[in-house]
DNA sequence: GTCTATAACGAGATAGAC
DNA sequence: GTCTATCTCGTTATAGAC
């Protein structure tokens, strides 16, 4: 019975993986808005109703793809962080930024799914939050390590932002100065601005040597969060 | 006959405008990927074949919407620049940034159309380039004015980036230092990272007082391009 | 119990004949 | 410009295989 259960569980895992794999293929070809359970089933030689044993609705399938994408990106970032554990803070920062960019370039459609336009009629549930937070936590970890080690450069903070900065710090990293967390959130958004512009074509005919440009830009970002 | 011709031209303009208006409504409801000439025609009480007298294809309609969106955003930015002609460079910079954010918040679907995920199967033609460039030219203008007036702060440039920086400067603004243009292009992308994160929901449960946060962040961006 | 297959619903898009 | 026949879709109910 334990082997039968094991076999069933294994089969279930494999089918689930095959469904997501095919769904990702469709994501690339038609976009998230047109992702269709029927098409996925057809391509897999299944009947559409059979898919409901694995995903209770189309939206749940989308959610699974979104979580997978966030996790895949988060893992890439964590690998880069861990591989540079002994390096200087700025070097770790840029290494993670480059890992993010590298992941985006190799997974453009999954990147568009999580950081591009919202899918009409779909609202991401709270279950996506932990996976979505992983990249951010990697950056927080680097800044925290720098803070406890060589220290952070002093940063200024606009007068009206104190309350909000304290709130964000309490939420995200109580052990860090509020100005650092504020700067970090801004840098986080700005990093994805650089990646999105490259990926979505805004750098066409503008930036040619994108790798060098990116490294220069994110080194600047590292400085704005107080790393050195 | 000249009155008849004038009336015809006017009618054509009006129908064209009505088509685009309805198309924008669909953009909001279903997203760019599902924009269909048929649905637009139906909603307007026309027959789909009649639409082809105004737009030769769905892609051309999309292109028109994209150009309109870029122009609308560009105008908002230009208005903010002109309204602050006598202000300090940093104040002008933040005013234009806030105009960009304000436009995005009031036109979220058009923003997603031009700065969100690419539409599958659609490639923007070169005709969109001039409209797309308008916002960028506004920022270049502000930096140029500052350079000719109170001057720019000195900026560093990564060693390997000299060639690319010179190329970009020659392309975009030969009268500005190459480091300034490089920093400006980065800041431009980073600005849209801030706006996209707010608009696409990444700031949910993270940034609460978004207006204050945004102003703080773009003031920081102004400094990274050498304004003061 | 776990899965797949058949059939059907209501809604929307599409193609072509007229 | 209209009408109709035929597709697609998400989703459910049901029946039967393993």
At a glance:
The structure is a homodimer of 228-residue chains. Chain A is mostly helical and 228 residues long. Chain A contains 10 helices and no strands.
Annotation keywords:
homodimer; 10 helices; 228 residues; DNA-binding; mainly alpha; elongated
Principal-axis shape of chain A = elongated
Segments of chain A where pLDDT lies below 50 for 5+ residues?
Answer: none
Measured by DSSP, the beta-strand proportion of chain A falls in under 5%
* Strand segment count of chain A: 0
Structural class of chain A: mainly alpha
- N-to-C span of chain A: 59 Å
Helicity level of chain A, as a percent range? Answer: over 70%
User: Order of SSEs of chain A, N→C?
Assistant: HHHHHHHHHH
The total of helices of chain A stands at 10
How would you describe the oligomerization state of the chains in this entry? homodimer
Q: Over the alpha carbons, how many angstroms does the gyration radius of chain A reach?
A: 21 Å
Mean pLDDT metric of chain A: 96
Largest sheet of chain A: none
Q: Largest inter-chain interface?
A: A-B, 59 and 58 residues
